[in-house]
Please model this.
Amino acid sequence: MTGRPPHDRRFVTGAVAMTNQRAGKNEMPMMVKASHDLEQIVISSGLLDDAPFWWIGLMYRKGLKNDPAPEIRRINKQYGELPVAFEIDVRLLYRQEDETIYRVYCASALWALIHVGRKYELPTAVLESRLAELGGWPPQVIHANPTET
Model:
C-alpha cells in the first residue's frame, strides 16, 4: 500500500476551464454534490478495497469535446493518490437545470471510475449499474437554446 493523504477522503474532484465559457451559478455546487454522493458509492462498492492506491483525484477539463478515455496517471506513492483527468464538453453544462448538471457530473465521473476499475482489475459492477441508470456516457442533454451550443 502506498502512503496516506493528509485528509480522509477517498474520491475528490476538481475542474479547470479550457474555454472562456462561464460556469453557471449552481455548477460548482452540483459538482461537489456529485463528488460526495459518488464517494459513498466508491466506498460501498469496494472499488478501493484491493486497490494499489488510497484515493482517486479526478480533474474535469471543461473543454469542447468528450475524451474517448480518461488520462490515468501514475500513482503518487507519497500520498496514495491516483490522478485521473479527462476533457468534458462544457456545452453539456451550459444553461442546464441543476439536476441535469448533477447527472452530467455523475455520469462522467462514473465513466472515468469504471476505466480505473478495469485498468486495475477492481470491481466495477455497481458503478456500471449506476451509470446505466443515468443513461450511459456521454450523457444525452437537450440544450436550453440549441442555437447557442
User: Anything to note?
Assistant: The longest helix spans residues 98-119. The chain is about 35% helix and 20% strand. The first strand starts at residue 11 and ends at 17. The chain has one domain: 11-148.
